[in-house]
Design brief:
The protein is of the alpha/beta class and 426 residues long. It has helices spanning 22-31, 48-59, 88-91, 101-108, 127-135, 168-179, 194-205, 237-249, 265-273, 312-319, 338-345, 375-387, 398-401, 407-413; strands at 3-7, 13-17, 38-42, 63-67, 73-77, 85-86, 110-114, 138-143, 146-151, 160-162, 184-188, 209-211, 218-221, 229-232, 253-257, 278-282, 285-289, 299-300, 324-329, 349-353, 356-361, 369-371, 391-395, 417-421. The protein has a four-stranded mixed beta sheet with strand order 22-23-1-24. A four-stranded mixed beta sheet has the order 2-15-17-16. Helix 6 packs parallel to helix 7, helix 8 (237-249) runs parallel beside helix 10 and helix 11 runs parallel beside helix 12 (375-387). Bound molecules: uridine-diphosphate-2(N-acetylglucosaminyl) butyric acid (EPU).
């Protein structure tokens, strides 16, 4: 397994370019199953999860091709789908495989999708996806670890669905199912994340009739057929936020290009409150510099437009360097503090009690070998390594490869001393 070796203490300076959003590209690829025609996606990041999604679509007999220049484009064409199945081998490596359930039900009226198990950050059930599909006329049973779903009629029927809890991929799944259903579907308490809005934009280009994106009520008037289109995936707001912290934590000066500052309102506001100078240079560019004085500031994760849970580990790394106390409250996932124990091993002063973590700073971190436990935890540890004294080795970086395109090269490009140590050489 590859590792990262980081020599901390270098202020990062220069320009980084943000890639397309993994969590937008995933539902966009699944949405291509809704039509027999070609869907071309631009600005798809080169990350492992999207390769897994491509394998999954290919398993179902969709044709997926990738062009590399200038950025990565995915061309997906699914004239016929012969295997309406997401097998365990693929689902276990990527929970977002569940996103194929809605499109398969809409297009074929049947699907067999492996139940995603729990993962490092929590139990992560999919009950809300299934309940909503049942309301749309789908019979669901689970056996041998698989969700077996079958529509009682050829087309799903529109329904009034109130999500008990806000769910991002749940909203996306049902949006896709409803796009081809008979009649109107209303989704209440739906997710307002920019990735959901991006999916609506794509579905609309494919001929779907949807209103209400960006609000918690979505209205979908089902159509009989969707067609092919082209779409450019939005910039990755979590990668952007990660580089904002990288610039701030190292006392550097980074210009972050090809991003969408309007998707980072809560993150920018919180970092500014902690004393970090962040400037919106234009609609696609941010500049971040080291704080004159970094101060502790409490933070609670929330659904969008609140502070993203996917930025919590990175914020915790920043909080270790701030003067005073930062109380962090994680409200979305029950077990998302695995990075905290690794940061403590690096010298951070953090105490965790259930969903609350209290970080006292500033602490001089010192490099050691740490384990990455999930994608965003890995990002938090990379950031901690960038300010630690001496060398930090991060194990199990396959987690970070799932969602950050070229993170080593991008960090090297702005002066970080980081390298990938390949398994054989380690
Ligand atoms: N939940 C249920 N039942 C459901 C669905 C969700 O109880 O049927 C619970 C979850 O257990 C969790 C909460 O609702 O406590 C929110 O989960 P949500 O469904 O919104 O999460 P998700 O759709 O599985 C997406 C992102 C995650 C991100 C979360 C929250 C994708 C592919 N994944 O997951 O991204 O953390 O929303 O914003 O979009 C990541 O990129 O590292 C990542 C984990």
């Amino acid at each position: 397994m590859d590792k990262f070796r980081i020599k901390g203490g270098k202020a990062l300076r220069g320009t980084v370019e943000i890639s397309g959003a993994k969590n937008s590209a995933l539902p966009a690829m699944a949405a291509a199953l809704l039509t027999a025609e070609k869907v071309t996606l631009h600005n798809v990041p080169k990350v492992r999860d999207l390769i897994t999604m491509a394998k999954l679509l290919a398993f179902m007999d969709a044709k997926v091709s990738v062009t590399e220049v200038p950025a990565s484009d995915y061309l997906i064409e699914a004239p016929t789908l012969n295997h309406a199945e997401a097998p365990y081998e693929l689902v276990k490596t990527m929970r977002a495989s569940i996103l194929t359930l809605g499109p398969l039900m809409a297009r074929l009226g049947m699907a067999r999708v492996s139940l995603p198990g729990g993962c490092a950050i929590g139990a992560r059930p999919v009950d809300l996806h299934l309940k909503a599909l049942e309301q749309m006329g789908v019979e669901i049973s689970t056996s041998h670890g698989y969700i077996e779903a079958r529509a009682s009629k050829r087309r799903l029927k529109g329904a009034h669905i109130v999500f008990e809890k806000i769910t991002v991929t749940g909203t996306e799944n049902i949006l896709m199912a409803a796009a081809l259903a008979e009649g109107e579907t209303v989704l209440e308490n739906s997710a307002r994340e920019p990735e959901v809005t991006d999916l609506v934009a794509l579905l609309r280009k494919m001929g779907a009739k949807i209103e209400g994106e960006g609000t918690s009520t979505l209205r979908i008037r089902g159509v009989k057929k969707l067609h092919g289109t082209e779409h450019t995936v939005i910039p990755d707001r979590i990668e952007t936020g990660t580089f904002l912290v990288a610039g701030a934590i190292t006392g550097g000066d980074l210009t972050i290009k090809n991003c969408a500052p309007e998707h980072l309102g809560a993150v920018i506001a919180k970092m500014q409150q902690a004393g970090v100078p962040i400037e919106t240079v234009n609609k696609t560019t941010l500049r971040v510099r080291g704080a004159q004085k970094l101060v502790g500031s409490d933070m609670t994760t929330e659904e969008y437009p609140g502070f993203a849970t996917d930025m919590q580990a990175q914020y915790m790394a920043l909080a270790t360097q701030a003067e005073g106390t930062s109380v962090i409250t994680e409200t979305i996932f029950e077990n998302r503090y695995l990075h905290a124990s690794e940061m403590i091993r690096m010298g951070a002063n953090i105490s965790v009690d259930g969903r609350r973590a209290v970080v006292r700073g500033p602490a001089q971190l010192s490099g050691t070998t740490v384990q990455a436990s999930d994608l965003r935890a890995s990002a938090g540890l990379v950031l901690a390594g960038l300010v630690a004294s001496g060398e930090t080795f991060i194990d199990r970086v396959y987690h970070i490869d799932r969602g950050y395109e070229g993170i080593v090269e991008k960090l090297q490009g702005v002066g970080a001393h980081i390298e990938r140590v390949h398994a054989l050489a380690s």
